[in-house]
Specification:
544 residues, alpha/beta, Rossmann fold, GMP Synthetase, Chain A, domain 3, 9-stranded mixed β-sheet, 5-stranded parallel β-sheet, 16 helices, 29 strands, globular
């Protein structure tokens, strides 16, 4: 079944009932189907067909969703780009996926044209505002679009979504999700949320993430719900929409929940329409769970990854209190295992790597067979996350095996940040770790050692990131040390650095705590060299 059939079926059955309301328009189910057909005609007139890629760089909009479903109809692949990234990051992704068409909205067209991000042969289209030289205007293409041809015969295994995710190697990987993966994920969401056509769903997460796109938005459109879509998150707008639209379901990551709970209207806002709030992306603090439950709304967690579309494990509303803090059991038609380093299943309560198997799992990484084979070894997706199952089969996430930082729901690859730091001529060594943060979950902290005879200036180091990496990847603290702690094989001991960073956060003047990190390693003359702060204080970075 083609994912586009979801919309066609609802257009026939629900017709004039509201389907989608966004800043750029309001559509009934029948009107949404017509907009998708018009978009498919536009793309087809540009030569877009089966196997072609369409990249999209814009804030959330109804047209963005219409283009996704138009790609499904044509057998093409939709590539949503993270608008928080810098132009060089976009250029690297687009060079790899080579889209036939790149659509860019007004806030991003100038930067995208000034430092051309599209490879040769890609048609660049401005969705609004000023049209850079050599680009086309979306509305002009729509006016010239011809008659739409019949739908392409795209099977369940055909690729539909290509979503880039940060990897522990520092190079973003393109995750390929098929029609079948979106079908399976929608099944899991429907079972988890008890979706019906009567539900009113609010989406404030960015649609370039599978969390914003697939935890509720696409499953809700399949189920015939009404989706309210905001361009981006705003705490006041979110509370207002919940009240005025009588929202029944929404997804909010911990950083968003923090902003809502801190809002003056939180204690008095009418949340009576909400059946539950779904959360995830990182470990959810107990204080947030308690604050939401205190308002009488179940907070249910979901666990997964871009590679699992993303729903792999989830709670249900009736389990939210008894299993608070758990990410639930295996999602509908999904299997979970927790294994040790040898790949053997561990007993309940024992931590190990979380593996996933199901139709929701990716087909592989784009043009990266080696990484695909490693991630999908034995037919299971190896998540790189550690966790344990309790006696009832509920999953509890303990941490990450991958060297990854999650800040405000965004993945940050330390290797990517370290590469920028090492570009500084005064930096001899550099490492990046995450530090727990009440608002963002984690913030990026850089630990650097200067070259002999040089002095590192905070402004100089932090300025390296301007225009090169997205703002959320910039270090928020900078700690200067004599040397990084390494083992006998030269590997940086990240756990020692995390303890050092935590010690400095608790007592910025306490260099003696850092000296405690000096210790002998266990066996074979392996030594750990403790990193001692120079000057005893962390240099405070810029705000988030």
């Amino acid at each position: 079944m083609n994912v586009h059939d979801w919309i066609r079926t609802n257009a026939a059955a629900l017709r004039d009932r509201p389907a989608l309301q966004a800043a750029d328009g309001r559509w009934s189910h029948a009107a949404l189907a017509r907009r998708i057909d018009e978009t498919a005609a536009l793309l087809a007139a540009q030569g877009i067909g089966r196997g072609d890629a369409v990249a999209w760089l814009a804030l959330n909009s109804g047209q963005m969703l219409a283009t996704l479903f138009a790609c499904a109809r044509l057998g093409a692949m939709f590539v949503p780009l993270n608008w928080r990234l810098a132009a060089p990051e976009h250029r690297a992704m687009l060079a790899e996926c080579e889209p036939a068409l790149l659509a860019v909205d007004e806030p991003f067209t100038a930067a995208s044209a000034a430092l051309p991000i599209a490879p040769k042969g890609t048609r660049c289209v401005a969705l609004g505002g000023t049209v850079p030289r050599g680009w086309a205007r979306w509305d002009d293409l729509a006016e010239r679009a011809g008659r739409l041809l019949p739908s392409a015969a795209a099977g369940d295994a055909a690729p539909l979504l290509l979503c880039y995710t940060s990897g522990s190697t520092g190079r973003p990987k393109g995750v390929v999700l098929s029609h079948a993966a979106l079908h399976a994920n929608a099944d899991a969401s429907a079972a988890m949320h008890g979706l019906t056509a009567a539900d009113r769903v609010l989406t404030t997460l960015p649609l370039f993430h599978v969390g914003g796109l697939n935890i509720l938005t696409t499953p809700a459109l399949r189920a015939g719900c009404t989706v309210t879509l905001h361009p981006k998150f705003d705490a006041d707008d979110t509370l207002a929409a919940i009240e005025s639209e009588r929202i029944t379901l929404t997804v909010l990551v911990p950083a968003q929940l923090d902003a809502l709970i801190a809002h003056p209207r939180w204690v008095s806002a009418d949340l009576s329409s909400l059946r539950m709030i779904t959360t995830g992306s990182t470990v959810v603090p107990q204080r947030l769970i308690e604050a939401v439950h205190a308002r009488g709304v179940p907070l249910v967690q979901v666990w997964g990854a871009t590679e699992t579309a993303p729903i792999a494990a989830c709670l249900h509303a009736h389990e939210a209190v008894a299993k608070a803090g758990s990410t639930g059991r295996a999602a509908c038609a999904c299997e979970l295992r927790v294994v040790d380093m040898a790949g053997r299943d561990v007993a309940a309560g024992v931590s190990g790597e979380i593996l996933v198997r199901g139709a929701n799992v990716m087909s592989g990484y784009w043009r990266d067979p080696r990484a695909s084979a490693l991630a999908l070894a034995g037919g299971w997706f190896h998540s790189g996350d550690s966790g344990h199952l309790d006696a009832d089969g509920f999953l509890w996430v303990d941490g990450r095996l991958k060297d990854m930082i999650i800040s405000g729901g965004e993945n940050v690859s330390p290797a990517e940040v370290e590469a920028v730091l090492l570009d500084c001529p005064e930096v001899s060594e550099a490492a990046v770790v995450g530090r727990p943060d009440d608002r963002w979950g984690e913030v990026v902290v850089a630990v650097v050692a200067p070259k002999p005879g040089t002095e590192l200036r905070r402004e100089r180091v932090l300025g390296l990131f301007d225009g090169r990496l997205a703002r959320f990847k910039h270090p928020k603290d900078l700690l200067v040390v004599d040397a990084l702690p390494r083992n006998a094989l030269g590997k940086v001991l990240k756990e020692d650095l995390r303890r050092l960073v935590a010690a400095q956060a608790n007592d910025p003047g306490g260099a003696e705590q850092a000296n405690d990190l000096r210790r002998a390693a266990q066996g074979n003359d392996e030594l750990r060299r403790g990193a001692t702060p120079r000057g005893g204080a962390a240099a405070q970075g810029a705000g988030a």
